[in-house]
Amino acid sequence: MASKPVTVIVRIVAKPGMEAQVKRELMNLLAPTRSEKGCMNYDMHQADDDDSRFLFHENWVCEEDLRRHLEAPHIRHWITLAETLLAKPMELTLWHKVDY
């Protein structure tokens, strides 16, 4: 069975007072991630009603590419920073498109 594309949704909540720093650090992930093998899109969003909430919408060619991405140095660095910058752990969910 061939690998299927995978969609990733990541929800992030910054600690009070850390919103600008979290946004800067997350923006640093955009260019290197978008150049990774298998990255179809890597889009960052910030809630209109709450500057502390961020959401990533990502699409990867396959789960293997996603796994490789999660081990990339820039992502490992972010995960280390997140421990002190975030109000709660990141919420990451995987999704697959339903074809009908």
Q: Could you walk me through the main structural features you see in this protein, from its secondary elements to its overall organization?
A:
The structure is a single chain. Helix content is 37%, strand content 29%. It has 100 residues and is an alpha+beta fold. The chain has one domain (6-95): Alpha-Beta Plaits, CATH 3.30.70. A 4-stranded antiparallel β-sheet has the order 2-3-1-4. A hairpin with a 6-residue loop joins strand 2 (39-46) and strand 3. The longest helix is centred in the first third of the chain and has 16 residues, at 19-34. The radius of gyration is 14 Å and the shape is globular. The protein starts with 5 loop residues before the first strand and ends in a 5-residue tail after the last strand.
